[in-house]
Fold each of these.
Amino acid sequence: MKSRIPRLVTIGLGVLAAMCHWTLAAAPSSDLKASAHDGQVFLTWKEADTPVGTTFNVYVSNSPVSDLAKAKRVAHHIESHSARDWWDDPASFKKDTTAGEPVGYRIQSDGERLDPKDGLFVYTVPANASGKLFFAITNTDPNGAEDTAVSPGANSLAEGIAATPGKIKPIWQRQGQPPAPGLGKGKPLWLNLHAKGGVVANMEYLVFGDDTMGWRPSLPFKFSVRIEGDTVVVRPTDRVWINRPHNEASDGGMPAIWTFWYGYNSHIFDRKLMATGVPTNYTERRNLWILDWVREQYQPDTNRWYCSGSSMGACGTISFGLHHPELFAACHAHVPIVSYTSLGRASASRLEPSCWTGPIPEDLKTNEGVSLLDRMNGLKFVSETKADLPYVFLENGRQDGSIPWQNNPPFYKALSQAHQGFAVYWDNGTHPTSGKDAPEDVKAWLKRFQRFSLDQSYPAFSNTSSDRNPGNGAPEDGDIIGWMNRGMDWKDIEDASDHYSIVLLADYPDVQYPVKTDITLRRVQKFKTAPGEKISVRTGDERPVSLTVDSSGKITIPQVVIPSKAGVRVAVQRP
């Protein structure tokens, strides 16, 4: 009889465990801990294996959390095992890729990595916060039911943590200490935007964003800053974790999505809720944050910032770089979408997977209160802006299967009609081959765009006689290979309070002289003029003529004749 008792007890416990598994199984989250630095609280917890689709929530309060109704929920839909660094797993970005060995985030510069099986949330301390903060973690099952049980010392902090507001700082991801401040002092800055499908390798910095930088706070993003030659090269990455397969994207299906360097729907975490969400410029906000931090930490020359990219990176160069003339002196865009419209192969469809649930309505508003299609319409932007835009160099292919050609000629003409600075080259190439056989002077544009500076004037050329005809956007219309403002150049600018002069040049292989062009003086520093003011203009040895400054205060000099490679001097002064 004695020998049977242990067996009966064992059987009874086994039946009880099967009937009441929740009482014996490990809690979804436990051992909640907190640390604070640089305006953020880093919460980590032990996490048990949970059913697929389980998510976690974070609550905060100024007193110990025992009743969630008295706390504020600050995050939801946090993925299981959120301490795992998905950036280090190639399977996060590409289908049919072997998953890498899971590794945890490094949340202290030169610190140890977290256990990738654990949970992580980074809370950005609000500007009005004071006293200690208390947190609790709950879980929501795959059916959407939240377990609201709170256990101090397990999934709730028994002791609060003192945290003060402050500037978020990136976390150095390499061994050793990060570069000292001022490493790029006085050097130009180059923002290099990658193409779709790309991700920057071995990024040096990790940031956990606040609630303005993503669909939920604490979304991680990485970027690279390297001194290459004499330039501070900044490479952000256009990826964001949405905690579900992005099956709506034709080449997606992955949870780390691309956003065409703009942003995405505020409810992208749940496809069913996206119709109630708002297209939000999260990616642009991240880029602005990165640039602001690099300005402070590396101290580059703020007059010499440049933006470039190819394919999706070129799209971002147009929609982000060109929209920030206060930051960038010049841009270079290779095969960009210049306007997201229904023309051609419907470039607006590129925004549908991340911003909406289908074709984008004309009146769909962004968080900025404007139509998304208007916001992403480069032609409209160029036509309406009065600012001195970054000088932009463009390359496109007429047979590009990814970028509809129909949008390009109207955009080129809008730049010309707006008297903005630009040069463009097109050929009959496809997406991967466009520009491959371009002349060497065109290939050199990627270096030439670094000659510009925000504190130096330049001439914008338009109606140049050596231009070719891009046509009206129809496949059969216009020159198959061509350019606008190719070889147009200048030197010897004198920009003084009482006069302005410049030598205009036109030079490329087989150029035919004379070349005629209109010029508009942009970014004039000292020779300021008022709308309607009369000025005197002298071209070469010709007699001075009187011109009237336009309504925006700009000086446009029509049909300047450049007779030879030596160029011609144009002098402007008040009568």
Amino acid sequence: MSSEIATPDDAPRPGTGLLRRLAGPALAVLAGAVVLVLVHGLSRGIDYHAMVRALRAMPAGLLGRSVAATAISFLALIARDWCALRYAQARVPVAALFLASFCGSALGNAVGFGALTGGAVRYRIYGAVGAKPEQIGAVMGFITVGFGLGLAGFAAASALFAAGPVAHVLGWPVAVLQAGAWAVLVAVAAVILAAAIRRRPIGRGRFSVAVPSPGLLLLQILLTALDLVGAAAALWVLLPAGPVGLADFSAIFAVATALGVLSHVPGGIGVFEAVILYALGHRVSPSLAAAALLGYRAIYFGLPLLLSAVLLAGAELARSGTVLRSAGKLAPVFLSTITFAIGIMLLVSGATPAFSHRLALLHSVLPLWVVETSHFLGSVAGVLLLFVARGLFHRLDGAWWLGITIAFASLAMSLAKGMAYGEAAVILCLILLLLATRRHFTRRTSLLRQPFTVGWFAAVALVLAGAGWVLFFAFRDVAYAHEMWWQFEFDAQAPRALRAFLGAALLAAAASLWQLLRPAAGRVAPPDAEDLARAAAIIRGQDRAEAVLGLMGDKSFLFSASGNALLMYAKRGRSWVALFDPIGPRAEWAELIWRFIELADDHGGRAAFYQVRSDSLPLYLDAGLKVMKLGEEARLALGAFDLAGSHRSGLRYALKRGEREGLALELIPPAEVPAAMVDLEAISRAWLATRHAHEKSFSVAAFVPAYLAVQSVALLRQNGKPVAFASLMSTERRGEAGIGIMRHTDGASPYAMEFLFTRLALDLKQQGFTSLSLGMAPLAGLGRGPLASYWHRIAGLLWEHGGRVYNFQGLRSFKGKFQPEWEPRYLAATGTIGPFVALADVAALAGGAPRVETA
């Protein structure tokens, strides 16, 4: 990497940047506090010991029926994916359908933001079996719309059948509720009717979105209803029989689910439970209802997540077939989630009393100090796993070793502190999963150097707050006394839990303080001559012509550990923007992507990757980045390029007309470019003057003599006078060529550039080049249909009405004359709004704006 010089400008400054960084975590902490207050108020009627007894006394038959209902729900989710694939006209193997839908749904349910987390899983698996990114995006859009319509329709229909309970939950009059329910049902029916009437796509041309058939849309809504009924039944069978029927409970469940989704709390945890407890009121014992909710969380959320990790670990061990190899690469994401969940489990276990008869058995086997130490260290291990989970997500070798060490130690401590067999079994599963997926954790970055975001610390703080609430809830009948801190006895469980919680909280606080006191990161310096020489050797030895832009000298470099690959990047504001995919051996791309994200995190910034290709999207999705389409690049396959046929008549005419007007193309090799620099500079100055423009940078080639001198240049003369030129980016492999800087004078023939590109393509074909990149058409291929994202809709408006600012359609129309293959290009960035902010910073960088290094 190019050198970094620490300057006072890089120190964090109070202001809008800091407020933006703190706003999201602060809202999350506030929401968590509100949820804790709600749950605390509803827990007054819950007896902890009665809840635990009810949970332990649940018959195996009831648990089996809950598992069966969960299976029905997930089968409906798999069928929903099948419908969405049919809508997107994507054909995938059955194994890919099952893995993507089941694992994506399990992760989305557990972590929250289902469309986002589930989308990453589907991109990885469906993309591996040939589905295009646009098709996968359509799948996710169809699932999201179908779920929204299905949830609304199911909740409205249920409310009509159970108006009383639902009105009680919402605090509405029954008549108002029924009127609202009918209005929602009419709206859903109207959507289905509109789909039946309008069979034509919505939009125009490339921006059209196919309208799903009414049968497919109705089936998607019915499958969503089946999913909700199955999930509701999974909880309902665990409740005491009699007080509430399944129909009434399904309505309550739909309302609780909707409120949980709207809260944006992962899995709706706390919000969902509060609604259920409030709705059941006095009809079900609060202790029994709480026991059922705990069982439901374990079966419907925990079991599928664990099973998904087992399936992915099995795919990793099998390593056969495209689907299994692709699915195995998702294992770190699931293991990170499971590790975080086990960390929560250990903290909650340390805050709750062990069973008395098990402690009595330990009394006769182990000394007191072993039990006390195991209980204390078990909670400390829980906090450590919360931090290790982030390292596992980043595939760190050190995180794997620390995780496996803590897991083995926790396995022994779970037995020593209270013979917690269930806890030990879950930890044993984690150990086996870590061992099965060892090869994915090979990154040598130190875990201690790993930057943790404010959001991660907010999550840890919420977990500790929840564990603290559980501590006081479980021991609410124990009066506090100062002597508890030094009370050590086998049956003194409250003091033991209190000490363990204090140790865990102090460790978390120390880790947070250590991160806050880390030195500020330095400013990025331009590359020096040595960096440029190293970069040039890598760029010249690979086959992507676009990489030659790295030799302009305006971008810094991040080199791989081996020195065989690099990322080129620039920084503006808090945006660290890498241009294109990594350059060099593909095996080193993932490592460079992770290192760049960590570099941006370490500076308190956002990481973005500009103009990445569709075949590399899984690498960015695996890293947790958000992806949005930028446009399409025009690539001309030179092997099949000729001027025969009616579809090439326009190009033939441009050549003949140009020849009549005295146009002639000269391809100047790099060694002779300096001699022609005076003519090239004159054309460039004239071009800039007539457009009142200045030189661009970053993603756009600029007139830099040293940069032009290492490329071939296509110089166009008209009657012997230089009137236009285009630099030709290529590497030593001479497979792919690309257009760099293009300039022409106003006096040139109107057919000059068309003549230049046509003649150049024919000459490159004769020289053995396989393809010619004509550059990207921004915003091309982004639709504005009802399933499109907000970005696609905004981009569609810019495409149609932004001609006064930038000739989007004219640029694509010109390149379309050559009938190229259009390949999508994407932006991948961290954060929810990160892609939009990064895109604005990229525009400023490309426009030649000075770099702004402050936060």
Amino acid sequence: MDRRGFGASGDGAGYAIEREFEDVAAVVEAAAARTGGPVGLWGHSYGAGCAMGGTTLTNNVHHLVLYEPGLGIPYPAGSIEAIEEAVAAGDMETAILAVLVGIMEMTHEEVDSLRSSPRWPTLLAGTPTVPRECRAEDSWVYRPGQFDAITAPTLLLAGSHSPSVLTKATHEAAAAIPDARIRVLQGHGHLATRTDPAMVATVLRQFILP
């Protein structure tokens, strides 16, 4: 799905991550109505956090897979303000690189690979949403029982080479979801969907399909 402010989706005033949770639940309900039963739900990074929240609002998820949700990761002092300033100045590349390099700790080689990919223009187009998403992650606090409503079998994916803040956030998410388990993707970081998409697809099939 195209989240708020991305692709074919419009945006709106009064942003809160809870609206993203509701959006995910609405799409799940529509997909379930079309297919005639519950669906598998997958989310990556900020989208994984949205998938977590969305699953608490619907009973139509039969399996949930979350790749390093960022809820609760701490942003260095002044970093979000710097991203906001870059966006306000129309410098989307500086803004997105502040996240990819400064927070996700991507190497120059990884950034160059991403910059040369068809996805780069899409990332830049969605960059105006980045500051609010950073603030939502930075200010997130898990409350006891917040995700107890998730009954679907849940798998969290974590890259063995991912930044420690993402590893910690992944473990916090797993602890918040009943009976969730973690699978470490050896030799990969936060973007195994790019570095080895076939492997990620195999992991998803093994977990979701009967």
